[in-house]
Amino acid sequence: MAEQTASASADIPAHGPARSAPEPDSAPAPASIHEHEPEHESEPDPEPKSDSAVVRDALGVGIAVGLSGFAFGVTSAGAGLTLLQTCALSLLVFTGASQFALVGALAAGGNPLTAAAGAFFLGVRNAFYGLRLSQLLRLPGPVRPFAAQWVIDETTAVALAQPTRRSARIGFGVTGLTLYVLWNLTTLAGALGAEALGDTDAWGLDAAGPAVFLALLAPMLRTATERAVAGIAVVLGLGFLPVLPAGVPVLVAALAAPAVLWLEGRGLGARRKGTDR
Question: How far is C-alpha 113 from the geometric centre of its chain's CA atoms?
């Protein structure tokens, strides 16, 4: 009996009412209000840009580049093209690099088909610009054929730099209109001026076209790959200039791009193999 009483007494703590747990020395800190917030907040919408600011920037680009049409007019007239042919190129082609390449090849005595081929390859880039701009601008169907005439380096750069579709449309339209009008007016002025001056070679104006082209191209060479392509293209073009017909060295220089990309691909593959080992 005593043993049972002792045993029962020993079981009381185990089967008796649960004692309250001792309170901790300090209450737990309240949950931070940031615990349930996402780690990365969504990026805010781009700040709108005033229409006047977009127009100002677009006018600056259009005027600065449009004035170089004078150099094209001089170069084209010096290459032997008539006033009508020179103005038609600016009105219908309206892509400065291709126009300079065409008249440059003709001035050097190249075959018209070869000169046109070189200009065509330079103008192909505008087709890729159009693919990107069609998604960005989403212009109505009836407007697109007219807008396609303005798809060039400058209008693409201005449009892509804008934060909203509205500002992109304004930038594209103002740049295209300003540049198209001014380019054609300065082309006419350059061609008329070249005819009045006579021999453009005597004045050194035959170098105006290449100089303007290089000035437009240089700021676009931002990466090592782009600079390598440009450097190799110059070496190929100048190297084959004495041995190939006029206009053909330009086509050979176009091989610089795939050559650099192939070399980069081989280098990347070699580095990957080294890492796997």
Answer: 29
8: number of Cβ within 10 Å: 10
CB 220 within 8 A of CB 226: yes
The token pair that represents 135 in the structure block = 């998604």
Q: How far apart are CA 94 and CA 151, in angstroms?
A: 9
The half-sphere exposure of 47 on its side-chain side, counting CA atoms within 13 A, is: 3
Per-residue pLDDT of the chain (277 residues; tens, 9 = 90+): 444 444 444 444 444 444 444 444 444 554 444 444 444 444 455 567 789 999 999 999 899 888 889 888 988 888 889 999 999 999 999 988 889 888 888 877 778 888 888 888 888 889 999 999 999 999 999 999 999 999 998 899 999 999 999 999 999 999 999 999 999 999 999 999 887 766 666 666 555 556 655 665 676 677 888 888 888 988 888 888 788 776 677 778 878 888 888 888 877 777 777 676 6
- The torsion angle over the Cα atoms of residues 174, 179, 185 and 186, rounded to 10 degrees, is 150
Biggest alpha carbon–alpha carbon distance for the chain: 138
Distance separating alpha carbons of residues 29 and 33, to the nearest angstrom: 12
Residues ≥6 apart with Cβ < 8 Å to 122: 95, 97, 98, 101
Could you give the CA distance from residue 68 to residue 53 in angstroms, rounded to a whole number? 24
| Cα–Cα distance for residue pair 124/213, rounded to 1 Å | 17
Angle in degrees, 0-180, between the axes of helices 112-123 and 125-137, rounded to the nearest 10: 30
- Say which residue the tokens 């450097």 belong to: 231
